Predict the structure.
Amino acid sequence: MANIVSVKTLSENTHEIVVAFHLQYVDAGDESAVSKVDVSALATNSNGDSCTAVRLVECWWVIQGCTVEVMAAADTNVIMMHLAADDIGYQDFSKFGGLPSTLSYGANPTGDIKFTTTGVGAAGDTYNIVLRMNKQY
């Protein structure tokens, strides 16, 4: 078997995207730099331009038994947020337009978002994370 993992787009338009991520441990252990948001696969804007990056505006999470690192993908991935084990939380970065663009982290950034977990390995280990992101073209 494998862990139960899902990625669900809750809403998307030319300006923003809201995505929910879920992992429930079954027997596969940690995720390591797993791609969660591929900006090239997001909807284009009204001019047909492809999305090249996102800015994290809001994040909600419920985590049990593991930690999650939300990372901007680059040659060496850069941690944007570290979500602690056994935690419930919310962060709102909208007052200043969100965190910097995923293209502004590290060397040769791709604009994508990846997750890495630590500590996944027991019944009940799970995460539920929702990200609201502004799209950039």
